[in-house]
Amino acid sequence: MYVGRFAPTTSGPLHLGSLLAAVASYLDARAHDGHWLLRLDDIDEPRTSANAEKIALTTLEVHGLEWDGVIGRQTDHQDRYWDAIAQLRKENLVFYCTCSRRKLRDTATYPGYCRTRREKPSDPASIRVRVPNRNIAFEDRIQGSVESNLAVSEGDFIVMRKEAIAAYPLAVIVDDDITGVTDVVRGADLLENTLAQIFLIDTLGLAMPRYAHIPVLNQRNEIKLSKRDRAFSIDNRVPLLNLVSALHMLGLDPSIEHHDVHTLLQWAIEQWDVRNVPKKVAITDFISI
Fold first, then answer.
1. DSSP-derived pairing of the beta strands 94-97 and 126-129
2. Where does residue 82 rank: exposed (0-12), middle (13-18), buried (19+ CB within 10 A)?
3. What pLDDT shows up at residue 259?
4. Kind of pairing between the strands at 144-149 and 135-140
5. Pairs from 168-173 (Cβ < 8 Å, separation ≥ 24)
């Protein structure tokens, strides 16, 4: 059984790039007669907003993107993150790191300053995982072959932040494993991060999902649309136009007259073929409705 998901953060309203990812993951799930789950990535509680969550859910609903089952939340998975850390610790793969951002600002990859630390320090410390000096690869359903050596491209990466908040590479693989996600469809800005996730999945013995990374939407200055940068939020008054715009960017041609979002989405499900999604990592020439 195909199980897909959409996992927005709750730090702000959805923007057009968010909608693009939601539509792509929704269509891929429905075209495979699968489940489409909704998970709110709310683990970074200082940045979460109840109002943003409400707006995001409303946005999905008015665009006809109906999820299956109950809404999942990262905050319900805290114990499982620490279980994963404990498993990594048993294999001597993690260490405490007290390095500040300032100390690391001139380094492209983590230099291993704290790699030999054995005891938990009294100062606040993040937890990093030791990465192997070898290539890690996967076949993306859209972008093709992706391969890199984490030791060269990133170095030992953080799996638990100093604030005791699970870092994205760890949190997302645990979240997906808990809910049985088989297919991940998301933005290509996470292509490199996926290699770190695959390393953790393999190390922890979790089931490996398939990946499909769609192009992200960049502003004219090549900066990705982001909630943090107050990117264009979705205008829920024109959901049909928003969907038409998203479908065009996903390689579909919704030229047939549709009177509501449900008939448009049904048409898109029937036409969906992930091979038609543009094989590039970013789109800059798009129309914001």
1. antiparallel
2. middle
3. 80
4. antiparallel
5. 168/193, 169/193, 169/196, 169/197, 169/200, 170/81, 170/84, 170/85, 170/200, 171/41, 171/43, 171/74, 171/77, 171/81, 172/7, 172/197, 173/197, 173/200, 173/201, 173/204, 173/206
Distance CA 282, CA 219 (A): 10
Reading the block at residue 97, the tokens are 């790191």
Average pLDDT of the segment spanning 4-11: 93
User: Which structure tokens are listed for 107?
Assistant: 């380094």
Give residues with Cβ within 8 angstroms of 131, minimum separation 6: 150, 151, 154, 155, 156, 157, 196, 199
d(Cα 88, Cα 130) in Å, to the nearest integer? 10
- pTM here? 0.92
The position carrying tokens 């999905």 is 60
- Identify the burial level of 107 via C-beta atoms within 10 angstroms of its C-beta, where 0-12 means exposed, 13-18 middle and 19 or more buried: exposed
Q: CA torsion, points 166, 169, 175, 180, in degrees to nearest 10?
A: -160
In degrees, rounded to 5, the angle at the alpha carbon of residue 131 between the alpha carbons of residues 88 and 123 is 65
Measured CA to CA, the distance from residue 131 to residue 141 in angstroms comes to 25
End-to-end CA distance of the chain: 35
Burial class (CB in 10 A: 0-12, 13-18, 19+), 256: exposed
User: What does the DSSP 8-state code read for residue 250?
Assistant: T
Alpha helices by DSSP H, listed for the chain, are: 16-31, 50-62, 78-90, 101-104, 150-153, 168-178, 191-204, 239-249, 261-271
Residue with tokens 């990465």, as numbered in its chain: 131
Q: What are phi and psi of 8, to 5 degrees?
A: -80, 155
Instruction: Tell me the C-alpha distance between 13 and 9, whole Å.
Output: 9
Q: What is the pLDDT of residues 185-238, one digit of tens each?
A: 999 999 999 999 999 999 999 999 999 999 998 754 444 545 444 446 789 999
